[in-house]
Task: structure prediction
Amino acid sequence: MEQRRERKKKEKEGVEQGPSKVERVLGRGSARITFLVGVVLTLPGVSYLAALHELDNLNYGTVPTILVILGFNAMLLILLEVPLIGYVVAPERTVVAVQDFRAWLSRNGLKAGIYVAAGLGLLLIARGVIEFLT
Result:
């Protein structure tokens, strides 16, 4: 209990701490750990189940429905699939690419997020206008 108070006190004072236990485990670079974290992070949630329900409402045949679901999952997991394939094909190059991407994201992540949110907002507005006019 006392350690916890000391940690919180240091955080309030702005003293930087080392990486958390999770960060240390992930920092080892083990493919197994990466895979397990990916599995845990991609367990089906409410939004995934809602998307499957919407795909079912399209009333495609069996084969097209399976292909659409596979494509949907491929796009959903692309940020996990690309690095994993890269680690198998070219591990050294992938490590550098992932580090470069993380650095770019830390520099430009806020701006990129704003652009993505603005783009999605514009698409939703356009969809609403089209629905209203038809």
Q: What stands out?
A: The CA atoms of residues 64 and 70 lie 10 Å apart. DSSP finds seven helices and no strands in the chain. Residues 92-134 form one domain.
